[in-house]
Amino acid sequence: MKTVLSTKILTPPQKELLLNAKVGFVEYDAIKIDFPSIEIPLNFSHYLFTSKNGVRAFIKVIESKNEEIDRKKYICFCVGDKTKQLLEDSGFIVSEIAHNASDLAYILAERHKTNRFIYIAGNLRRNELPEILSKNNVWYREIVAYHTHLVPKQFERNFDGVLFFSPSGVRSYFESGNSSNSIFFCIGKTTAEEAKEHNDQINIANKPTTENVLVQAIKELSFRT
């Protein structure tokens, strides 16, 4: 039986996908997120999110206010279907969505250059989005609204595949000197860019969802049986 390592704990339905395909798995959380007490300005109209954690931090600040706030007044731009879904389920309007931060930055530079943005980021965010915005003279203010902590863990075995869901997860996996001999299955382009520093056996999900990462792993490993 082929076995993969997931760098985050999977939900029961996600585990069923692997088990039904006769793919074994080991799982752990390679990163830990915390949300410090911060202030996010709420008097802007346009907000950028590159992860669901940014959305959670934004919601946390809004809910801390002792007043009713109309969430429909905020126009949101985000990376990933799951981030979009969380925003819309929470009552926000999503204007643009992209598969990765670079693509989102170019969309903003091409279609929304005159707007002013609040970028809700984490402490370990990559540089692509702010660099592209700055290069194209798009005004933004960055708020570090959540902290990502690496949780390194060493594995004394090789896996047929390793599933990565963020660049931080890649960094955490390699901080303990783990093997780079497996096929890496990555949720998106930015995660793959981080993984390529360690391995050229990279498979990128067609859509930036956990389920699609699992499907890609199942297809590739079944082919190699």
Q: What can you tell me about this protein's structure?
A:
- With 225 residues, the chain is α/β, with parallel strands linked by helices.
- It is built from eight helices and eleven strands.
- A six-stranded mixed beta sheet has the order 3-8-7-4-5-6. Strands 2-1-9-10-11 form a five-stranded parallel beta sheet, with helices on both faces.
- The longest helix has 14 residues.
- The termini are close together.
- The mean pLDDT is 95.
Short description:
Helices cover 36% and strands 26% of the residues.
Going by helix content, strand content and strand pairing, the class is alpha/beta
Task: Label the overall shape.
Answer: elongated
Low-confidence runs of at least 5 consecutive residues: none
Quick one: biggest sheet?
A: 6 strands, mixed
Strand content: 25-35%
Secondary-structure element string: EHEEEHEHEHEHEEHEHEH
Helix count? 8
Structural Rg: 18 Å
Number of strands: 11
**How much helix, percentage-wise, in residues?**
25-40%
Strands side by side in the biggest sheet: 3-8-7-4-5-6
Distance between the termini: 9 Å
Task: Please state the average pLDDT score.
Answer: 95
Keywords:
five-stranded parallel β-sheet, alpha/beta, single chain, 225 residues
Topology:
Blueprint: E1 2-6, H1 12-20, E2 23-27, E3 31-34, E4 46-49, H2 52-64, E5 75-79, H3 81-89, E6 93-98, H4 101-111, E7 116-122, H5 128-135, E8 139-150, E9 161-164, H6 167-175, E10 183-186, H7 189-195, E11 202-204, H8 210-223
Parallel strand pairs: 1-2, 1-9, 4-5, 4-7, 5-6, 7-8, 9-10, 10-11
Antiparallel strand pairs: 3-8
Helix pairs in contact: 4-5, 6-7
